[in-house]
Structure formats: C-alpha cells, structure tokens
Amino acid sequence: MLVTDRLNMQWPEKHHANFIYRLLNSPAWLQFVGDRGIKNLSDAENYITNKLQAGFSEHGFGMYIMERKSDAECIGVCGLIQRSYLDRPDIGFAVLPEATGKGYTSEAASAVLAYARQELKPGQIYGITTEDNLASQRVLTKLGLVYQKDIKDEQGEKLMLFSTL
Q1: 33, 47, 100, 124: most buried by Cβ count inside 10 Å?
Q2: Distance between CA atoms of residues 78 and 1, nearest Å
C-alpha cells in the first residue's frame, strides 16, 4: 500500500467491486478509456481478478485503488500498466466525477512515480492519452512527463505518448 497526505492507495480486492463498477461506467472512463463491458458486480469482480490483480502478479506492479483518508471512500485508480505495444510501463489514472479537479490524481500519480523510481527502477515511464483528454495531459505534464510523439494502440487508435526523461 502507498500512502499520501490525503490518500491510502491499496491493492484491488473483490470488495472494491461496487466502486470499480461505478468508475468503469463513469462518463469520463467511457469517453477516454473505453467500455470494458462491466455491466454488473460479477463483471466488476472478474475485472478486479483478471485485470487489476493480474498486473501485480504478472509484472510486479499494477493499478492501486485510491481511498480518501478523510472518509474511507474509494475515489479512483492509479498505478503502472504494462501495455503490449509499449516497451516500458505507463502510468494510468482515473477518478470518479465527484473527485475530479481536486488534485487527487496528481497526488496519487506522484506517489506511484516515486515508488517506481525507488523500488522498481523501470528506467523511463510512459504516459499515454488521447488528444482530447486535456485533463490527463495536464496531469502528465505536471508530473514532469514530456510529450514525445503520437503512437497507435492495438486497435489503431491514435494516442499521445509522454515519457519521463
């Protein structure tokens, strides 16, 4: 678990299914990340096991659940992802609509980057986003990542690639 001033960042567990269902069906997730087919709590539990937990077991890193310390509410996810089309991990993040614009994403992502640099030592870390996701672009640049070039994912979608120096 990672800890920041306002957040506890914990491993994803099946008891987070309701939160994952809400997050993956939120408007920003659907617009910028895409529909993952999470239609009920069983789908959310399977996503936690097969995607979120699998990242930690396969790569030694993954997406943490962001829990606000003040009220123990789960508000987002943040962590490192190893994508098949990238040679380095990339930092990913998403928050529920009510947590947007409050600095939680930058706080969580800073903790993830610090942990990665200290413990994982992956070299460069990437960040990817769509051209129209200005909020993610702001977070990536605030973290010190620099735009490198446009790339395409497995489905041929154009993405902006940022990286640490």
Answers
A1: 47
A2: 12
> What are residue 148's phi and psi, to 5 degrees?
-110, -55
What is the reported pLDDT for 20? 98
Question: Which amino acid type is present at position 93?
Answer: F
Query: What is the predicted pLDDT for the residue at 119?
Result: 85
- Distance CA(133)–CA(146), nearest Å, equals 15
How far is the C-alpha of 113 from the C-alpha of 100, rounded, in Å? 20
Residue 19 tokens read as: 């939160």
For tokens 């610090």, name the residue. Answer: 114
Q: What's the confidence (pLDDT) of residue 81?
A: 95
Q: According to the model, what pLDDT value does residue 121 have?
A: 79
Alpha-helix residue ranges (DSSP H) falling in 17-143:
17-24, 27-32, 41-47, 54-59, 104-115, 134-142
- Mark the ranges of the chain whose per-residue pLDDT is less than 70: 122
CATH of 2-163, one of 3.40.630.30, 3.40.50.2000, 3.30.430.20, 1.10.10.10: 3.40.630.30
**pTM for this one?**
0.93
Burial track 128-162 (b if 16+ CB lie within 10 A, e otherwise): bbbeebeebbebbeebebeeeeeeeeeeeeebbbb
